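Provenance

Sequences were taken from public entries as deposited. Structures were produced by running a predictor on each sequence independently, with no templates supplied. The record for USP domain-containing protein from Gasterosteus aculeatus aculeatus is shown for reference.
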Amino acid sequence: HHILKFVLSCAGGNGMLTPRTMTSIAPSKGLSNEPGQNSCFLNSALQVLWHLDIFRRSFRQLTTHKCMEDSCIFCALKSIFAQFQYSSEKVLPSDALRSALAKTFQDEQRFQLGIMDDAAECFENILMRIHFHIAEETKEDICTARHCIPHQKFAMTLFEQCVCSSCGASSDPLPFIQMVHYISTTSLCNQAVKMLETREKATPGMFGELLRNASMGDLRSCPSQCGQQLRMARVLLNSPEIITIGLVWDSEQSDLAEDVIHTLGTCLRLGDLFYRVTEEKARQSELYLVGMVCYYGKHYSTFFFQTKIRRWMYFDDAHVKEVYGAVLVVGHTDNINQLTVYLIYYL
Ligand SMILES: [Zn+2]
Ligand SMILES: [Zn+2]
Ligand SMILES: [Zn+2]
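Predicted structure for USP domain-containing protein:
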């Protein structure tokens, strides 16, 4: 099973147009993964967090936290970020974070030493642990702590409801928070075909609309049983600065990989992604693709757009290299029969 993750960055915002002194440098380093460690999932999640300017800068501002000693993910992350910034080594060990993660999730038997795990779930769980370390007193689903990076920058606060256009009945709104917006690749490809039938060519705004159409889910009966078939609508209540999209494969073997890659856009408007977006700031938001994590041949690697130098970089554990067009590289990989795609969009 193969996974891709995409991360997007703001158009012309934080890079070239900002004076050099205003931008922070994110030195790129490799992360070691010795035989038997199976740390590539963590290394990929870590490269994403380090290279996301919003995360790196906000995390640097945080000083106090509820410390968990040798199982403290916050301390382990602080330590590796300091090494990214100041170490003269080209390759860093991610062992301390790996070990803190294993200790933290021992009861659930997740992320244990030597065992391969899921990069996107690791990414989500690291974010939720940061919430725990800095805003523990507030519940995960109603966290409004201003310094809580996971909830302020990454979380999508949503409610889901179906409203009948014919009789006006509506289902009870279901509120929830998500860090990753998951979409089925089968649904994505079906919707892409449908949308292209009704227009001459793809437009820049189409990608968000495509994702919205693809995530509407199955038809269901009107709550007042008037006979109408309805779809769930999702309403976004906040204005996240980073959006992570997870494209999920419905089966172990799929021949949709190439089609999926062709549907991917590099620009995402929040106003297109959801049925309704309540905040004006979110309605105006345009997010750009800045990165992707791929899982191929039982191994994770990461592509990331370095806003400082405006180049795509490729991170494969200890190896770091510059690439020209990450999506193109993936499109040319032979024998892709299945990919799970995670996209992260960043303002
Ligand atoms: Zn600590
Ligand atoms: Zn929080
Ligand atoms: Zn109805």
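The longest strand covers residues 286-295.
Residues 1-23, 325-342 have pLDDT under 50 and may be disordered.
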